[in-house]
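User: Structure tokens for this complex, please. No commentary.
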Amino acid sequence: MALRTPEEFKESLRKLRPNVYKFGELIEDVTTHPATRGTVEGHAQIFAAALDPEHERLASTTSNLTGEKISRYLSIMESAEDAMNNCKLKRLIYNLTGTCTGGRCAGWNALNATWATTYDMDQELGTDYHQRLKNWLKQAQANDITVSGALTDPKGDRSLPPSQQADLDMNLHIVDVQDDCIVVRGAKVMICGVAAANEIFILPGAGYREPDEDYAVSFVIPKDIEGLTIVETRHPSDMREFEEGFDTPVKIGGITQAYLFFEDVRVPKERVFMCKEFKYSGAAVTNFIMPYRAAIGGCVAGQGDIMAGAAALLARANGLSTRPFNERLTKMYINNETTFGLGVAAAALGKKHASGYWLCDPLIANVNKVYVGSLPYETKVLAQDIGGGIAETGCMPSFKDFNSPKHGHLVQKYLKAASSAESRTRVARLIEWLTVGAGIPGCMHGGGSPEGAKPIIRANAGLERSVALAKRLAGIEEDISEPEKKK
Amino acid sequence: MALRTPEEFKESLRKLRPNVYKFGELIEDVTTHPATRGTVEGHAQIFAAALDPEHERLASTTSNLTGEKISRYLSIMESAEDAMNNCKLKRLIYNLTGTCTGGRCAGWNALNATWATTYDMDQELGTDYHQRLKNWLKQAQANDITVSGALTDPKGDRSLPPSQQADLDMNLHIVDVQDDCIVVRGAKVMICGVAAANEIFILPGAGYREPDEDYAVSFVIPKDIEGLTIVETRHPSDMREFEEGFDTPVKIGGITQAYLFFEDVRVPKERVFMCKEFKYSGAAVTNFIMPYRAAIGGCVAGQGDIMAGAAALLARANGLSTRPFNERLTKMYINNETTFGLGVAAAALGKKHASGYWLCDPLIANVNKVYVGSLPYETKVLAQDIGGGIAETGCMPSFKDFNSPKHGHLVQKYLKAASSAESRTRVARLIEWLTVGAGIPGCMHGGGSPEGAKPIIRANAGLERSVALAKRLAGIEEDISEPEKKK
Amino acid sequence: MALRTPEEFKESLRKLRPNVYKFGELIEDVTTHPATRGTVEGHAQIFAAALDPEHERLASTTSNLTGEKISRYLSIMESAEDAMNNCKLKRLIYNLTGTCTGGRCAGWNALNATWATTYDMDQELGTDYHQRLKNWLKQAQANDITVSGALTDPKGDRSLPPSQQADLDMNLHIVDVQDDCIVVRGAKVMICGVAAANEIFILPGAGYREPDEDYAVSFVIPKDIEGLTIVETRHPSDMREFEEGFDTPVKIGGITQAYLFFEDVRVPKERVFMCKEFKYSGAAVTNFIMPYRAAIGGCVAGQGDIMAGAAALLARANGLSTRPFNERLTKMYINNETTFGLGVAAAALGKKHASGYWLCDPLIANVNKVYVGSLPYETKVLAQDIGGGIAETGCMPSFKDFNSPKHGHLVQKYLKAASSAESRTRVARLIEWLTVGAGIPGCMHGGGSPEGAKPIIRANAGLERSVALAKRLAGIEEDISEPEKKK
Amino acid sequence: MALRTPEEFKESLRKLRPNVYKFGELIEDVTTHPATRGTVEGHAQIFAAALDPEHERLASTTSNLTGEKISRYLSIMESAEDAMNNCKLKRLIYNLTGTCTGGRCAGWNALNATWATTYDMDQELGTDYHQRLKNWLKQAQANDITVSGALTDPKGDRSLPPSQQADLDMNLHIVDVQDDCIVVRGAKVMICGVAAANEIFILPGAGYREPDEDYAVSFVIPKDIEGLTIVETRHPSDMREFEEGFDTPVKIGGITQAYLFFEDVRVPKERVFMCKEFKYSGAAVTNFIMPYRAAIGGCVAGQGDIMAGAAALLARANGLSTRPFNERLTKMYINNETTFGLGVAAAALGKKHASGYWLCDPLIANVNKVYVGSLPYETKVLAQDIGGGIAETGCMPSFKDFNSPKHGHLVQKYLKAASSAESRTRVARLIEWLTVGAGIPGCMHGGGSPEGAKPIIRANAGLERSVALAKRLAGIEEDISEPEKKK
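Assistant:
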């Protein structure tokens, strides 16, 4: 099969067994249900982009397995340029959808990370995981599927390792290994874009030790596999998605995050890429987060682009020039280019793994994660600041009031400014959606928290080299060491 | 009447003619309707506080008109201590309700500002506005009513003054002056707490000139006055307020903001405090914003207190000590104390107006407004950061899913950590409510925007004095002036 | 004696035994020697201010011991207003001198702190320290002397307490107690303004335990006491003070910091205020730092005033209007008012100690210390930014080159802009002096470091109260405690 | 000639006619005179690096003119990798010298910018400037010379263009064009590293119009050309460079900035690269500043590396572990990697000019300039914070006092902590040197000020594209334009 059309993509989702729930009810068709249709439309744009001459260079690429044209989201990143295109593609897709299409990027990163991890495992352990992954990937590319990625376990009491939890299911684990499959139980939580996914790629948690070996497990499954129940989470103002009108202003994008419950799911052997090799669980995650933390800078920049545009648009709709806002608009772009640029830099300064996978620079990727935990929030505040009171909390009457036979004419009369009342309302709702509404991505904790990035920065920063440079400059030869720990 | 009980307060609201709408429908009883009961409960706590030995010192005071014990929200602020108590009271009420009770504080500031403005008008123009205000205020105190305050006009095209708008109703204005009343038309928008108010105090916009004299109008009206239609605005996740359960976690507080439409409302003369005296429209607003911009630091500190507490609580519910979060918790408190402290300082450095009203220091009050436009947002980000993924966007299944017969046991199993699933969910929902949910106050633009505060800072900062000090220190006697403007 | 004149002050310094050194040489007369005359001139302005109708209200006050008019720097602070005047006075003196006059404010704080500490000691231990202090203070006021304050010990290895240091002299300590005196040995380092002091007030370090009791010592001594050697430290560009001309642009202010070496100094009993009462060493320091950390906000604001003025002046000297710099000038004033305002707030929110001493609020005082460790640095950067390249590092030829017979005419020709070359150079040198030159005060570590302020903020912030508020709002009754420490 | 040795480099400086002055006196030998020997030693390390196997890959490269191995500082940057190596090389050289070696990098950027500008001029005007440049460059590479670059004119009254200044010499200009040469008069000010240069590359100011055509001039000259007088400027604590000992702690690096006075200097035609072609003056400067503003991020990161090392070293010398400083050390590295990384990103996202020159991305390069105007200052504050009081302002007795026969033993006794007194002093002096001393580079205004970068960011950010994206997402088709300017 060649690259799929948006319609073929949607059709494939409709064919899956319904197993996604929200508000206590089963979603029969994710492509039309109010809770999921927005994210499906967002993901559909990715298929459109791959077929669009303007965007195909970013949205598609050539398979390193078959030489055929494939979705970039199913490719192996093998060069700095590939890694930079990760940043650029994410920025583009945010530009087009206004928010996260997590059913693609986390899956993409997961399969790339596993490309490297399985390579090392096979080299060192004599396993055949890497070949399994290749086989699966060829099919995935041929069928042009969407793959979401799932890492986060519920974890239970965070002060205890998996094997010491009161409830051993608090982290996803292997309960049985059979000849042709493994059986897994537990959950993955806060997983993006599953509603729009054909398959789900599972990574283990990090840093497991021998007692936790059952938790060292990685595999890929069809979304509708037996035993898997998916419950979508709430997000801000999600009930508006069930309403008519423009109070949810964006129809061509949306984010979902789900809890995945595995009740003794049987995963066929050829879809398993780690099975108890606990020593590699750290690498599995590290290989995931470095490119992720680099490229997430593209995501938030892409949303920042929209915020700057929406803020400028609302200023004009209010009858104002953007000139008095130049300082603030410039700050918004500084924030955008910082996270985007550092993502590009982490790509540019990376190095090639033996498997061919391009490893982004861990120091700069983690620096970027710290910025992703602050700059986009500043950008949001600036958008609200420029937009004024109606943008800050979406402080306008509802669509129903806008159209009320009784007082709708008053609402419209007084919402009109330099543009029509409807346009002004739509753009104010867009800012609300982006900053305190349903368009908010989980950028703080997605790919790990900023605080977790700091020790990696500290470890990679080369402090001892700096100390040596300082000593040389100051002409000091005395040994001045870290003091020993005292009781 | 003495200080009212919460129940008497609610009863008084029920007696008013219903004229508040949301989602296209009339709210028959604001004390029980899901859209308004939260804010009514919040305001009810203020009445409880005035009767509570722990809080009465802040929540009540002695009338400068009658010597009787009254709600502090109906008092005239006459000293630095009174002005500091404004900051402290706002912080307390945020502590108790989690959010804004705008039906009290804006009204309080409005009547205080008008105390000073009418005093000057009467002195200079020979009018009797100040006496009218005193008469009304005595009654208001005696009946212990809630008064909300309304300033913001729709404004239309912001680049044009009121009298040059295509639609002259874009700012509230006098359409007729009759012997016993004035007739007004237009709207006030984004007005807090009207749902919980007995009466509404109207201030004019600022800086009007002679052609705009019809817009220079100030008065107080019963909320249910003939010709006034009130439409409540949306706020984030407001549909949840119609749901059962804890997805709206706070039941004892809530914020509303409304659009007020005046269709030829007749305001009795004795309730009018400005009628075309355009030269005083600037003072009317300035007298309002100085104490407002000082005391709003107490508001956001009070909400910040809750955020710090909720963040620490969620960390513990996750099984973590708060120790690794000390740096961030400390930063939250630094932010809280900054806006609170600068409010106190603006009070301490103020001076007495001839009317007895205490004028807060405009320089520090406006500096505080700038901080209010940034520090609380940083505090929110820290709360989300500490709270983790479930707090960031409230990334948990709905209350319905939590209790689903089919999968509720799974949701609860995996949401449990060091506390029960319910407690952990409740506190995560609280952080969501405070940071991206229905608890968000309009602190950026309430009382004017930070950007509008900057020119006032510049004007009050004493740059020429600084220049003189610098010249003296550097031993410069040459005259070095601002260059003349060039064509 | 009434308030002294500047000349009487200088005369009193000349009468002291010379024991101050710099660059290996004894300074015979501190009032004329290039290394010390600047700070003496700065301190002399304080005497002038007390006699100046414009400034006497701040610079002088009434003695609580005698009812006579005294220098405010020798008064006991007994009210919020007194504590606010501390902030205001410091800002004024920075305005007049451009920098720190540490020979007054640390001494003032030290004697106030000791007022409270000795009161408690006498109450609890039956000692007569408080009476000794009163006796001394009456004389100090009568003679209108300058008293510098000294806290900081060399400390040696910071990971060890005083009594476990390899060299026991690393903290100042009592080596003998005799009938009429004590004998002390050790050093105090980085002590401000000693060159301009008549006497020096010594405080102990904080947190001493029983084995360290010899280190719990407080007293006041004449600067020229036998056995005391004072070595002035370097500061940036200090050699310029030996040059002619305006490369040191300020002649009426200057800062000195000295190392004080005590070689078995005999301190008369009536001048000793703590002698081995180690349990009070913590209070001695705490009583010092709270008002200090509040009022230091006035210091840095006062220097910030000069920086804003100098930046505006240089812009004009460059031929530019200050308008395009409004955003940055406003930021400078925001910084100034933040530290000044929080100092005022800490004063306003303080409480009275049993001794009569006004204790500033520790929470806000320590928040201010954190800002003092960052905002003034931002203000400096803004001054350099506005000033341009010549201000940034003082990038101009020397005074000698300015007047060179060979090329002085070229230097002057090309330094001229909208003002004379000399004025432009003087103001650029002033910015250099304030930001990277001899005018820099030690505001980061003076009164303790910002990092040391954070635990105090954390301890005073009331986190558990916040947690309780959050639980109440979210309707949580479950006990959710800090987890127990694990091995 | 091959790559020169450090000694050959110094020898070449000694052969030049002495024409550099400081403190009113002629410097006979820049390699030994205290005012210039530091920077010469710094530049000498560049020659050593090119011959050092560890550093040659960065410090040298292959000539695109001759294919021979040359100093990278004399190469044409033709690829993203070349532009990244600019960032890396600058970081390395700051690591080795602690400060700026402006005699190389500005010259390098100037000749690269001129490579592109002259190419365009020749293409469009039929001139032979590009060939002249090639000829000169071949010789420069062959002789391995140091070339400093000079842009900044004195400018006089900044509100007026060059041709309207009261004194026409306020910008460097052509006074005569002769057959074999041009004659120039005026000055260039604040020029880095001239003391260590063999030749000086002159660029015009930007944005000249026809009346200013005489000011559109670019050329390269031997430093000792007839008619050129060079006066070195002061920098913080520069007199210490005349002292013995470690109060100037760095002997292998130093920065100089000079004023260059041109009194009718005759520049041979073959060394002239622009002569009145005013339309290209903008490009000449733009081509310079883009790579400069990218790569300056490497400079400040390189100095930041030293600051982090010195801060850690001083903490250890004080007896402390670096662990409690992890948050702050991490912040220092975040700052370093931000400016370095954005420089790399600007290189990676650049594009090739028709001349072969690699143009860095202007958006990210200018974003970086904004950061260079703030982050390094924050890094300095952190270094002072970690280092403690002795680091903050170098608050220690002088080298003379350290060695005083009278009290040197006391100074040393009390400066000793966990390291020797000398080591502790040296590293504290290093922090002083880096943050308020002679090691400070002019990073705020070097290559133009941050404020000047903002309009370029605004212009390149693509706001209208953002607006279109926002409109598409919000479903708005109405034209909402910037309002027309009103009178």
